[in-house]
Amino acid sequence: MQKSILITGGARSGKSALAEELTLGLGRPAVYIATAEARDDEMRARIARHRDRRGPDWRTVAAPIALAQALDDSDGEAPRLVDCLTLWLTNLMLDGRDWEAATEGLAACLARQRAPVLLVTNEVGAGIVPENALARAFRDAAGLVNQRIARVCDEVWLSVAGCPVKVKPR
Amino acid sequence: MQKSILITGGARSGKSALAEELTLGLGRPAVYIATAEARDDEMRARIARHRDRRGPDWRTVAAPIALAQALDDSDGEAPRLVDCLTLWLTNLMLDGRDWEAATEGLAACLARQRAPVLLVTNEVGAGIVPENALARAFRDAAGLVNQRIARVCDEVWLSVAGCPVKVKPR
Amino acid sequence: MQKSILITGGARSGKSALAEELTLGLGRPAVYIATAEARDDEMRARIARHRDRRGPDWRTVAAPIALAQALDDSDGEAPRLVDCLTLWLTNLMLDGRDWEAATEGLAACLARQRAPVLLVTNEVGAGIVPENALARAFRDAAGLVNQRIARVCDEVWLSVAGCPVKVKPR
């Protein structure tokens, strides 16, 4: 009964809270697979805030780069929540990895999981075209990652001001 | 028969026109609660454009900061339209106010209204992460305000190219 | 049996692929009306990528500015796909044209077509307000073009991570 669900939305649109609720609805305790790296104080504060909101129902695993490995390693009974793909892509790009190959690897990995996987990602492409070429490249890559992973997921949700909108299947 | 409705969307996505239509559908004349402050020519032009589109069905009240007070003062028979929460948040932040406390105050205020309240807000979090720390803080705050107010509203609408999409309740 | 369909979404959200699929579902071969101008290498690469994805089912016409003319000239049996309105608006603005008049002209042109027309556009207004006044003006104009054209279209779709969401009619 493998099931994979992608949750997307803008910044502070309630994606993580929705993802946590959906994950615990599929089984508890659950595994939280964190892709964030605490590179600066702002990020450390955000990680701490997210961790505070989660309760004792969660076991946390860090996977800033080796996400497919973390999914394979944690595959059992418990649902897994990956938070989030956009930070994972950032880490891949900053580390000079082949993000397209990694995305294909993740898509294949999702198909072989037995326990459910929920993935949080971000909408970053609905603003004005960035002046910065790197920001444009990241924006394009993030959109392509979202499309590729959405294609292999059973469900895709968009969070709007905390309100969940199911966009796949409809 | 209190009813509160939040209308969100990107810039020039038809939010205000939708909000005005929904408001007048709940009763006329209506009260327009403007949070805009005419800080520069661009803003003055935008305020004038919006005011031109509205007809004699509207009585206008200015509330750049004291929004809950304006709602309490205008609570009677007529529906109220607040346009918009994003500018209200901007005013709070520029004025050094505690926007989180003000948002809680607004949520409580909405719960005690007797006449309907419609609120326009903006999606500002679906672009690339801003390089500017203040812009990032504003983007986060705007997302949190939208979530908090959406939670206490009976209905939430997303305007896409002028097409209304109801995201709560579904 | 004229039919016009607007497809919107963020960058790399799967708009073009969706539009191509919907167009070929209405008849083949189809006409691809490209508004892109190859101003730099990044744009040339993007044009080539899009062209590679399209097959021999497509005849391509370039219309960076004279879009209504290209629609009138190609009106027959075959469905037409315009990709995209945001680049068309960019071209109009860079060329110093009256984009509002051109948009009214396009709306009128769409109403007189006999064969179907699909139009791709971009969501550019859901990020933080740009610091740059020109970017703000473009963002406003793009939103207004989307609203105006959506109003005369029979259908409007929003693409989210490659998942089509019909927003008109609902």
Overview of the structural elements:
3 copies of one chain form a homotrimer. Helices cover 45% and strands 21% of the residues of chain A. With 170 residues, chain A is an alpha/beta fold. Chain A has one domain: 3-Layer(aba) Sandwich (Rossmann fold), CATH 3.40.50.300. The first copy, chain A, has a 7-stranded mixed beta sheet, with helices on both faces. In chain A, a hairpin with a 2-residue loop joins strand 6 and strand 7 (163-168). In chain A, helix 3 runs parallel beside helix 5 (99-112), helix 4 (85-94) crosses helix 6 (133-152) and helix 5 (99-112) packs parallel to helix 6. The two termini of chain A are 20 Å apart. The mean pLDDT of chain A is 94. The A-C interface holds A 6, 8, 10, 121, 123-129, 131, 133, 136, 139-144, 146-147, 149-151, 156, 158, 165, 167-168, 170 and C 9-14, 42, 123-128, 130, 132, 135, 138-139, 160-163, 165.
List the main descriptive attributes of the protein structure presented here.
homotrimer; 170 residues; alpha/beta; Rossmann fold; 21% strand; globular; ATP-binding (chains A, B, C)
Brief account:
Three copies of one chain form a homotrimer. The first copy, chain A, has 170 residues and is α/β, with parallel strands linked by helices. In chain A, 45% of the residues lie in helices and 21% in strands.
